[in-house]
Amino acid sequence: xxxxxxxxxxxxxxxxxxxxxxxxxxxxxxxxxxxxxxxxxxxxxxxxxxxxxxxxxxxxxxxxxxxxxxxxxxxxxxxxxxxxxxxxxxxxxxxxxxxxxxxxxxxxxxxxxxxxxxxxxxxxxxxxxxxxxxxxxxxxxxxxxxxxxxxxxxxxxxxxxxxxxxxxxxxxxxxxxxxxxxxxxxxxxxxxxxxxxxxxxxxxxxxxxxxxxxxxxxxxxxxxxxxxxxxxxxxxxxxxxxxxxxxxxxxxxxxxxxxxxxxxxxxxxxxxxxxxxxxxxxxxxxxxxxxxxxxxxxxxxxxxxxxxxxxxxxxxxxxxxxxxxxxxxxxxxxxxxxxxxxxxxxxxxxxxxxxxxxxxxxxxxxxxxxxxxxx
Length: 375
Hints:
By secondary structure, this protein is of the alpha+beta class. It has helices at about 5-20, 70-80, 135-145, 200-210, 265-275, 325-335; strands at about 1-5, 30-35, 40-45, 50-60, 60-65, 65-70, 85-90, 95-100, 105-110, 130-135, 160-165, 170-175, 180-185, 195-200, 215-220, 225-230, 235-240, 255-260, 285-290, 290-300, 305-310, 315, 320-325, 340-345, 350-355, 360-370.
């Protein structure tokens, strides 16, 4: 087999596919890329035992068709060094010897029989298909991924829950300390379905989609897996099994007190006061008054403390409530807009965080559990 390819285009696709290859694989063949040569395209496949990704790149002056597996680390290394020039591949189908010619030299190494590489299974009969705007999926993943639980003891909490209804889609994530509900009403799927997308493929999709991308993402899913197709990529992943908790019941129905504060001012103040919070609890006390919030932290082990005031608008009974500084920083960093609204009831009930100015067709609410404050 012979073909020519742009070094830059090839390197870009190799780097994208490498994101799903695990650093340590139980099957050594998964340390490789699977290269498939067709008359017009080179298909590059990589994966682990849960995810399979394929990308393609245009090739020219093609002679022959076929497949070969190539050690991913080696191919990434050699193409990185010559990515600024055209490359000419020669692949001996019998010996699996690969020769890559570039401007002033060549690389020579041996691949692996492609027959050893595991193949992606087709979706089960009755699989459903959906199409979402790429920008919508990107924004939803960015708005929820930070709250996914890293604890493998509860697998269903380690992914993003897609709650699909005829007139909207709600993306949900939670680590039990905070819970995010990202509701999109600008798309109407016309059907009812749900699934839990693991965090690894969510991160891969996030890294590949562009904010200004007008493309659509086609999603094909059955009870066990889902395939995302967009641009010149295809990503198949095994879904997380199990029933996601009834997240709507967690949100309190009546938080009558409303705090409105500049998001960036509050975020920066939290970061400063957190420097002197207890390393164990990360507790910051929020004393909320009609026109200001007084934040305070202390670390008794080192006899240190900090206080800072931030202007606000607050309608409700003055109260002192405690929040974990790390979780508060994550919530405020992932909300959009100039001002944030915090709905409260009492120091023992969770606070609801949302942007004051909401984007059309999008409703974002983040819940954070309070911490006990001992006066």
